Amino acid sequence: MNYKQCAKQLLTHENILIVTHRNPDGDTVGSAAALCSALKRAGRTAWLYPNPQIEGKQLDYCGRYFAPEGFVPKYVVSTDVAEETLFPKGFEGKVDLCIDHHATNRGFAAESLVRPEKASCAEIILELIQNMNTSLTKGEATLLYIGLSTDTGCFQYANANAAAFRAAAEMLRCGADSQEVNRRFFRKVSLARLKLESLIYGSLRFYRGGEIAVACVTREMLEKAGVSEEDLDDLASLAGRAEGSELSLTIREQEDGTSKVSVRSSDKVSSRAICEVFGGGGHERASGCTIYGDAEKAREMLLNVIDEVWK
User: Which of 34, 62, 133, 296 sits CB 3.0–4.6 Å from 143 for a disulfide?
Assistant: First the structure.
C-alpha cells in the first residue's frame, strides 16, 4: 500500500485496535499512540492494546490511549512489528494492517505499509497522518519524536540519515517537546540501571583483538541490580562503545529460558545476516533474534555463526 491508500483505508474503519510489540521501545509506543490520537481527531474510535510491558515514562505518554475493558475491535493495526512472534503478551487474533520499517517484515497482515528505507516507524506514521489531510498536534509530534529519536539513538546511529533529520525538523516545527524527551529518555536513568550498567561493563568479553564485544546479561545480574522492564531500554548500545569494536552482541536471558540477542555492527559485517541464521532479522547494522538457552550457550552459538558470516 502507499500512504494515500493506507490513510483512506484507516478512515473507513471503526473500532480500531493498535498493537505494539513485545519488549516495547519508544518507536512502537510513540508510533502507535500518535496514530491513535490522529484517528480519534478524525472521528474514529481507536485504542491501543494495553501491552503489559509498557510502564514508566512510556506509560506516561501513551497510557491515556489504552483500550478500556470490554472493547471489541473490528480492525487491528500493528506498528513497528516485524513478525507474529513479537506480539505482546495476551494478544491473540489476526492483524488487518501492518505498518513497519523492517526489511525482514514477514508479511503476516492482510495488508501492509512497509518502508524499510525509513530509520523508524515514526517517520511512516508522520507521513500517514499528513495524508489524512491533517497536520500534527503538539502531542502527536512529541510522540513521534520519541519514536524517531529512540530508534536512531538520539541521532547517533548509522540510520540517522538526511530523511530522518528532515522528519525531526517537521516534528519540531509542529511543537515536539524535544528537550523534555531528550532529558527523560537519554540523559536520566534510575540508580538500578546504573548498577546494571556497571555489572555489564565489568563482564564484557572481547574477541578478534577487540573487534567483537559481547555483553551477557544474566537473570542473576538483573535481580542483583533490581531493574524494571523500563530500565532495560537500549542495553544494546553499551557493548559497542568500546573503541575498536566493529560488532557487538548483547545477550539478555529471559524468564522462559531463552536469550534475547541484539546485534549492532559497522559496515564490515551484516547484523541481519547473523540474526537470520537464528530466525531473527532487522536492519543491516542493527538486528535481533531469540536463541533457546542461557546466555553462555547463546554466546558460543553466535560466535560460531559469526566465523561463517564474517570471514
Answer: 34
Q: What is the pLDDT of residues 27-82, one digit of tens each?
A: 999 999 999 999 999 999 999 999 999 999 999 999 999 999 999 999 999 999 99
Q: Partners of 111 in the beta sheet?
A: 97
Q: What angle do CA 46, 151, 213 make, to 5 degrees?
A: 140
> Average pLDDT for residues 90-107, to the nearest whole number?
94
**For the chain, first and last CA: distance in Å?**
39
Q: Which amino acid is residue 252, in one-letter code?
A: R
Domains of the chain: residue spans and CATH: 3-186 (3.90.1640.10), 191-309 (3.10.310.30)
